[in-house]
Amino acid sequence: xxxxxxxxxxxxxxxxxxxxxxxxxxxxxxxxxxxxxxxxxxxxxxxxxxxxxxxxxxxxxxxxxxxxxxxxxxxxxxxxxxxxxxxxxxxxxxxxxxxxxxxxxxxxxxxxxxxxxxxxxxxxxxxxxxxxxxxxxxxxxxxxxxxxxxxxxxxxxxxxxxxxxxxxxxxxxxxxxxxxxxxxxxxxxxxxxxxxxxxxxxxxxxxxxxxxxxxxxxxxxxxxxxxxxxxxxxxxxxxxxxxxxxxxxxxxxxxxxxxxxxxxxxxxxxxxxxxxxxxxxxxxxxxxxxxxxxxxxxxxxxxxxxxxxxxxxxxxxxxxxxxxxxxxxxxxxxxxxxxxxxxxxxxxxxxxxxxxxxxxxxxxxxxxxxxxxxxxxxxxxxxxxxxxxxxxxxxxxxxxxxxxxxxxxxxxxxxxxxxxxxxxxxxxxxxxxxxxxxxxxxxxxxxxxxxxxxxxxxxxxxxxxxxxxxxxxxxxxxxxxxxxx
Amino acid sequence: xxxxxxxxxxxxxxxxxxxxxxxxxxxxxxxxxxxxxxxxxxxxxxxxxxxxxxxxxxxxxxxxxxxxxxxxxxxxxxxxxxxxxxxxxxxxxxx
Amino acid sequence: xxxxxxxxxxxxxxxxxxxxxxxxxxxxxxxxxxxxxxxxxxxxxxxxxxxxxxxxxxxxxxxxxxxxxxxxxxxxxxxxxxxxxxxxxxxxxxxxxxxxxxxxxxxxxxxxxxxxxxxxxxxxxxxxxxxxxxxxxxxxxxxxxxxxxxxxxxxxxxxxxxxxxxxxxxxxxxxxxxxxxxxxxxxxxxxxxxxxxxxxxxxxxxxxxxxxxxxxxxxxxxxxxxxxxxxxxxxxxxxxxxxxxxxxxxxxxxxxxxxxxxxxxxxxxxxxxxxxxxxxxxxxxxxxxxxxxxxxxxxxxxxxxxxxxxxxxxxxxxxxxxxxxxxxxxxxxxxxxxxxxxxxxxxxxxxxxxxxxxxxxxxxxxxxxxxxxxxxxxxxxxxxxxxxxxxxxxxxxxxxxxxxxxxxxxxxxxxxxxxxxxxxxxxxxxxxxxxxxxxxxxxxxxxxxxxxxxxxxxxxxxxxxxxxxxxxxxxxxxxxxxxx
Lengths: 485, 95, 484
Hints:
The complex is a heterotrimer of chains A (485), B (95) and C (484). With 485 residues, chain A is α+β, with helices and mostly antiparallel strands. Chain A has 3 domains: 2-298, no CATH class; 307-418, no CATH class; 427-484, Arc Repressor Mutant, subunit A, CATH 1.10.10.410. Chain A has helices at 63-75, 173-190, 230-249, 295-304, 309-318, 324-331, 334-344, 349-367, 378-389, 395-408, 412-418, 427-440, 442-449, 456-466, 473-484; strands spanning 5-7, 12-24, 83-84, 86-90, 100-104, 113-118, 124-136, 140-146, 149-153, 160-166, 202-212, 222-227, 257-262, 267-273, 283-284, 291-292. In chain A, a hairpin with a 5-residue loop joins strand 6 (113-118) and strand 7 (124-136). The relative contact order of chain C is 0.13. Classes of the chains: A alpha+beta (485), B mainly alpha (95), C alpha/beta (484). Chains in contact: A-B, A-C, B-C. Chains B and C meet through helix 1, helix 2 and strand 2 of B and helix 9, helix 10, helix 11 and helix 12 of C. Strand 9 (149-153) of chain A pairs antiparallel with strand 2 of chain B.
């Protein structure tokens, strides 16, 4: 793992990084109130009396949020705790209506787990999960409408969150990137979080420290808050590790602190000295008795789970004989994998994979379409591959047919029939075209026979043109060679 | 374990309360009286005793995931000291 | 002609049903007493017009035989219960103008049963106090006062005084450390603090969530039984409310108490106990013995720690529960140059002295470094206190004890004012019940040498209010206490 070493003129260093990731739970209503979680409503519309902490209001737990967190825990091979306890984290802030956040502290819902990440060099690494607990999200303060005031919108206040804490197992930004992608893929597969970092439904704080290579001590760390894309998290961590190395090498020291990432400069900036954990005054939430889950409940959640990306990938490799790379690409996203599998059923999977990863992805990209809005269905893409395999059309015609499928959404066999694109495999028909071309071009025939062998390509082109592309190219080649001698 | 003026001020800030300077001594004394009084508990042997956070021994019940609240903006904003454009308005929050 | 306001709820319902008088007449009689009794400062908000409107509706229901079970019964509501469209302040300046857009479950239950509300009753600010003197609206005066104004007790002082002075047929109260029982005792009325979880806390302004419980305060045991039946019940909006069926408490009234084992906690017999209260306690035990009950000595060894435990846990929870009063979304706001300044200004001006004191104690005992020594320790001793009761209830069915070590004292009493702990000591017989989550009743059984009411307390097993009611009725009949 030589690439994980930060080398300077004076020595070699290693980064130690752990993540805290807040994932908004997918549920219809909030974690402790029955108001909607829908995104994009007018200010303070999706707000109940509970969400703005009116006097006398009490929290009531949403079962779906528990289910989703348990599902996520199972997806990360983590231990589900039969008994967990809600706590209050006390602090004053405008977007925190109760003056405390209901969260879990000593007894989280999900305990230790493990995720295997795939690194770009083909290696894999295990990253430990410390815990996942559930809690409520805060509202939003808006600072840019009025220069003297802040405006508060509580639509987001009370939306369920899963906070996932990893062990400090990361040694490079690359590993962090691979982990975030993996996590995102898993929660999306499970349907427990939509994983959009840019919209804030997945938010990542990274704790970074460095130490001389070979040392095992942990030095004070900097926590980088709320960076909104995988790429930026990686940039921030890289920058921060190098910055700390520089500080140490210049004889300085690092204080435990919180830092912001500036995406314009790619730098992290000092925000504040890490607030004393003392100030949160955690204590068990007296409005909610402990949450006790039966083994039956946990099993029922397990039974609801879909196949996860790693398992699916293995299956694609072993059952469908796809190369590792193809399987990885196709399994990154559940919808793609399902689209592919539908298209590939009963066919040569590799050929289908080529089409999906090639022309099909290119088309979606070019047209800025999502998979669900694709004009080409999985069934039709599969049928197109069948037409090629059965020599009904050739590869070149297939591309034209595909273009028409994109425009019209029609099935490929219909397009072939309507446009007379069926490949000509009738030797006699091709022979007659070849004869005509030879007859019409005596000069080129003479030149070819005189040694200009590269004219063969020109003859093939002429024949294909006259057949409107429907002639089988292999047959054309063969007949031309015979006739021209 | 006596509390000093500085601690009283720190606790006041954590509670978002302000104590008049001329009331600081008095507040501190009262505070210490109460803390000394409750410190009597230290003499109880609580080895192997679990905390009793709630007398309620039932398990937490959960509700179904159904939206049936919200869309009551007027009611929610009814008692607000200052509201603009449907938001709660406060002095500028500087991060 | 009998004064309608002398009637108990049981008598009122019978009279209304027989059309002896109308709900409007009854309501007007109470309104008259409210006006004459303003000197007691029991009501902080009067709802005369809406009450009369509701009475009219009730009268129609009696006419067309659609009357509900509490139809037309005029009640007073402690100002800690949120009442939709009616100012609800917790008697704090910080909520001086707060009008909730929602109804607490308990008051909603009462309204649905046909009761009507005469107004909101005085109390200690956020229910923190034992004398009603911490109310932003000033102390409520005990109707038993003679030459000196006496406290009505607290925190539900307004409820106790209003019932005592016949300014409502009955009232709601809440009890966190004795707030129903102690004022009931001081004003010579009957009050019940039900088992924790029996009544929903939804819409009741929270003081200490693990201890708060609503209950009825009324002229007698039967009225408390009638009211509690309607107030109680599982509520899906309160995760701590119990999924246990509510029995018809009225049905057990009058049943025999022969063979009932009544426990007398030896630790409550202290030298500090007022002599006439000690006598009243013996007398009450005797009355029950004569009815065939067996009196047994029991021990609650951790009794002396109940107050320190309570004065750690209650402030801890309160410090967090009261964080929401920050001047941002509702309540008093005093602007500042920053958000923190606004918080500090609003809270410093909006909360009274005792509330601030408890918030700070609560903040302190929850801070890291002190959390284990105070909060965790207190929760452990709390378990021992509850264990004491569990053991005691292996030897007895119900516990008899005084409600308070004293009777009502003067407003502004020097010793109480000079040291907050002296005031806290009045809760010595009541707080254990909250810490253990048990049901208890206070009922008047006699007068002290100064001619002031003495309250006796009956403490039952969890969710066994029925034994309390039947024992209470027996005691009430034998004590034959003359209401004010």
